[in-house]
Structure to design on (734 residues):
């Protein structure tokens, strides 16, 4: 593939993964907080679910998001030949 | 310092009060001489370690890249710890545990809010900035825009943000050391200043990075230690710990107190359960949204946080550092759950708020409690340790801030604008060191002049300016093809000025008429209004109490009455002092009798203004270079090709 095509693919994929992750981030933050009292009717690891999400769940999701993003981007760098040595 | 500046500093609530009340706390907790010695030893150990790091780093710091970016030799893991060290300020250490101890669920909203910010930092800002930047915010903006103009505004904004933040940290640090080690406030501020200056001037970014790493490790270690003590009685089981919180009478009493009348028909079980649901703290949604916006977007625009990404050698390491930072900060906030809930059950909201209304004393009180209380050796040692960690926290954050300001002055203004980028490496490093000394000395002076002032809202203002000025300029430079110098200059200036101006007309300022009215209400009471019965004033109450004391027979009654009289006299004295303080004054420093707006946090107004001004400014201005550089930027920001990497020196 010519270099410019490759870079276009790279840019498109970067934007797509960013959009997907921002969507997950939005749900894990705002939607969950908004419905916290309703979620508390369910229980998770002995916690009321809504409370768990604020105390630990959303934090874990953030860390997972960042980890996934880094892994995805590192692979994409290699595929498109722009990885730094 | 002029009167207006002092008044500006005196407004608001938060960290300043947090640390000031830490002082009051230590005094009330009966800190004796033996405790002082122990505190002194713990502090000395931490200072010794950091100075040794500085000595070691200084031997390796010669070039510009070494001074500003630790020679880009910091690994992802190290940078992750350093970011955590940079980001976890005393407010997040003392403040969040306190909020959780008082308000349960809503307290977490702050920690989640802080961490949410990092997602925006990573996904939109960090990586492209690292790929096109060199040492400063100015470098990022100068890539496409006119270098001199954009570096000047970027430096102005960096210095404004960092100075607001610096003053708050210096004042807090001064109060903390004054109380715990027993030296004067002025000397304490000077100690913080000189320490931080020696890290930055001699060791540059390398020493600053390692001081931040040490501080982050200490902070996490201290928290784990306390959590062990809190959690062990529950056999390290989450459900039983949580059930313990719900069943705790102190927690139930606190919820009933916060809810007021609406809690009348709730069972104790329901009250405890309510602690785990939202709605106890966040009452004005618009103001909260405004604060949240500034926190989330401001983090991405804080110069000292952005700078950290220039210290790693590759994009891969930059990503790794964010994973580590997220993991550490997230883990720390999970620990605050136990700290806050532990303080709520073991110490109780009553004792915590008695020392500080904002709840900032929760963690130190908890430390003293689990160690065996105020009279025990271990209790005092834990208290000293928590104090030392808070101190290390302040010095590390301050060092990062000074480095950011100094690089804006030396790299952007002196080398970039005045010398037109023609300076030898030796001259550049010298300029960086001289700038650090200037920034450091100015911050020591401002810290001493702000003695006794409430500086807390300056932290909020720093975030608001960063979000309204730096962020719009950076984001649009990176992602909008049409963005140019006109927009960047207009957006950064107007964004920053709007944030500051909104605060100047907000309820954060001191309004003498309102203060006088409040004091009069305390003294003379309030007439009946809207169906509410009239409230007697303190003066009337005092006469009543004295009359009762004269006729009281029982010893217990007498004791209670004497106590009430003392409290009432204290309230009268406070109100009279206020009246004297504001006598003859009618307006705030900008000439207002009352606030123009209800909003305390400017973000929701100033952030859109910042973005709008970048767009309008760009559309009104034509800049060929900015358009030509878009294609180059497009390649570079996403790939890091040509990024100032390990090859640069």
């Amino acid at each position: 593939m010519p270099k410019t095509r490759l870079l276009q693919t790279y840019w498109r994929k970067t934007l797509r993964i960013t959009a997907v992750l921002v969507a997950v981030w939005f749900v894990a933050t705002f939607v969950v907080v908004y419905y916290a009292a309703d979620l508390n009717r369910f229980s998770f690891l002995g916690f009321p679910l809504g409370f768990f999400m604020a105390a630990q769940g959303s934090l874990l999701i953030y860390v997972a998001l960042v980890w996934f993003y880094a892994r995805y981007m590192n692979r994409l760098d290699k595929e498109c030949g722009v990885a730094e040595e | 310092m002029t009167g207006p500046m002092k008044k500006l500093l005196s407004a608001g609530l938060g960290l300043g009060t947090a640390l000031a009340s830490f002082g009051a706390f230590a005094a009330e907790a009966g800190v004796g001489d033996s405790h002082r010695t122990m505190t002194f030893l713990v502090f000395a150990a931490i200072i010794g370690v950091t100075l040794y790091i500085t000595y070691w780093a200084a031997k390796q710091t010669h070039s510009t890249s070494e001074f500003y970016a630790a020679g880009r030799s910091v690994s992802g893991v190290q940078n992750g710890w350093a970011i955590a060290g940079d980001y976890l300020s005393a407010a997040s250490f003392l403040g969040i545990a306190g909020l959780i101890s008082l308000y349960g669920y809503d307290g977490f909203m702050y920690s989640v809010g802080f961490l949410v910010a990092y997602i925006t930092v990573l996904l939109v800002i960090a990586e492209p900035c690292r790929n096109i930047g060199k040492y400063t915010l100015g470098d990022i903006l100068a890539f496409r825009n006119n270098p001199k103009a954009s570096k000047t505004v970027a430096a102005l904004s960096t210095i404004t943000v960092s100075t607001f933040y610096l003053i708050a940290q210096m004042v807090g640090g001064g109060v903390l050391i004054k109380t715990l080690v027993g030296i004067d406030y002025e000397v304490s501020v000077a100690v913080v200043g000189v320490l931080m200056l020696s890290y930055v001037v001699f060791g540059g970014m390398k020493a600053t990075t390692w001081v931040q790493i040490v501080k982050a490790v200490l902070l996490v270690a201290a928290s784990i230690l306390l959590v062990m003590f809190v959690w062990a009685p529950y056999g390290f089981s989450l459900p039983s710990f949580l059930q313990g919180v719900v069943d705790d009478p102190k927690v139930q009493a606190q919820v009933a107190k916060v809810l007021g009348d609406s809690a009348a028909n709730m069972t104790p079980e329901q009250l405890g359960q309510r602690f785990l649901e939202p709605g106890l703290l966040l009452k004005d949604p618009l103001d909260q949204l405004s604060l949240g916006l500034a926190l989330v977007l401001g983090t991405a625009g804080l110069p000292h946080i952005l700078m950290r990404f220039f210290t790693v050698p590759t994009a891969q390491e930059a990503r790794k550092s964010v994973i580590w930072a997220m993991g550490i900060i997230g883990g720390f906030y999970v620990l605050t759950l136990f700290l806050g809930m532990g303080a709520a059950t073991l110490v109780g909201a009553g004792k915590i708020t008695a020392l500080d209304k904002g709840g900032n004393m929760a963690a130190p009180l908890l430390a003293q409690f689990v160690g065996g209380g105020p009279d025990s050796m271990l209790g005092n040692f834990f208290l000293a340790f928590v104090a030392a960690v808070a101190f290390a926290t302040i010095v590390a954050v301050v060092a990062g801030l000074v480095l950011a300001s100094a690089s804006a002055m030396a790299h952007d203004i002196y080398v970039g604008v005045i010398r037109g980028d023609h300076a030898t490496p030796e001259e550049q490093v010298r300029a960086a060191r001289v700038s650090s000394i200037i920034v450091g000395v100015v911050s020591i002076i401002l810290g001493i002049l702000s003695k006794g002032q409430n500086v807390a809202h300056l932290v909020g203002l720093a975030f608001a300016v960063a979000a309204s000025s730096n962020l719009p300029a950076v984001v649009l430079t990176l992602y909008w093809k049409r963005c140019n110098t006109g927009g960047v200059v207009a957006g950064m200036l107007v964004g920053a000025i709007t944030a500051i101006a909104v605060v100047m007309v907000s309820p954060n300022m001191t309004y003498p008429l309102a203060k006088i009215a409040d004091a009069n209400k305390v003294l003379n009471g309030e007439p009946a209004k809207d169906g509410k019965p009239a409230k007697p004033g303190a003066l009337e109450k005092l006469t009543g109490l004295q009359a009762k004391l004269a006729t009281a027979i029982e010893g217990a009654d007498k004791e209670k009455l004497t106590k009430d009289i003392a409290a009432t006299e204290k309230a009268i004295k406070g109100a009279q002092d206020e009246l004297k303080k504001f006598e003859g004054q009618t307006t705030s420093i900008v000439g207002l009798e009352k606030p123009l707006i209800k909003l305390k946090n400017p973000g929701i107004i100033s952030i859109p203004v910042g973005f709008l001004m970048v767009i309008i400014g760009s559309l009104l201005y034509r800049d060929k270079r900015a358009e030509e550089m878009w294609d180059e930027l497009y390649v570079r920001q996403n790939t890091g090709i040509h990024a100032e990497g390990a090859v640069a020196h």
